[in-house]
Amino acid sequence: MKRHAQTVRLRPERREEYLALHRAVWPEVEAALRAAHFRNYTIFLRGDVLFSYFEYDGDDFDADVAAIAADPATQRWWRLTDPCQQPWSDTGAGGTWSDLEEVWHLTEEPAQ
């Protein structure tokens, strides 16, 4: 399992639209994420900054991300959510969200 964190800015004028969409995420979008081995996906908001966290338990992250991107329901979802977001300058090729580097993780206590 690999942990991922990402961030993007939320356009203030689209804030309520974005929040309303996420109060009722489409089941097809959630199913595509689950099928692509995304687990424990959470989006947080502070001011106008969105932060996402998810865990990936698959074997081919790039292929699974491509499967999500090819999903028709997800494509329709992104047509609604992407205009609400304002990417940072370092999103990379084709991305909206910027990856964050993990610098620390609390691990389980060693067995005694």
From TrEMBL:
SUPFAM superfamilies: Dimeric alpha+beta barrel. It holds the Pfam family rhaM. One of its GO terms (molecular function) is racemase and epimerase activity, acting on carbohydrates and derivatives. Gene3D superfamilies: 3.30.70.100. Signal peptide: none annotated. This is L-rhamnose mutarotase.
